[in-house]
Target: SGNH hydrolase-type esterase domain-containing protein
Amino acid sequence: MKNTAVKTIRGANTSHIRHELENMDLKDFKTFFIQVGGNDASNKRDPELVECEFVNMIDIIRKTTRNARIILAECPPRRDANVKIVNHIIGKVAESYDVECLQTVQSFIRQNGHLNSEQIWRDGIHLTDRGTATLLRLYDTLVKVTKEKSDTTSLNQNNSHVGVCFFLWRRGTQLSILPP
Model:
């Protein structure tokens, strides 16, 4: 991804992302893409607290960059935690605060209702390279994050375990924060 800087947050949740946003100079960014994994769900964080963190993230962004585009993406499913509650919160906050919501769940579920084992590692938590490619193609429907190279999609291989990330674009430079 051209003009991309990547920062890793291991085991992050919505509180960690909010903290990162609070400590960044956001004034030149125009697009914010916030993707959380299931760490809030797997750690059984209070849903009201998780919702408050999303609202705080939106407030932080809007105070600094009034006309910014904000996209909240659903958590991909995982075997060890029910992410439905977090995804419900994401949809509710997106609608209430007039930001975009990217639905991701169905792209990782087979017709029989089970997780797609080609997209989710055996641990049932992390995305495989194929799962990451699926997620990036979903991102591409809203914001171009991949480039075509010799008829194949070029991906940053460090993104194979997407759990929490947010993307920020500043004057042609994209900053993405992803776990390993």
In short: The helical segments are 14-22, 39-42, 47-64, 84-96, 129-140. The beta strands are 4-7, 29-35, 69-73, 100-102, 147-149, 152-154, 165-170, 173-177. The chain has five helices and eight strands. The chain has a mean pLDDT of 79.
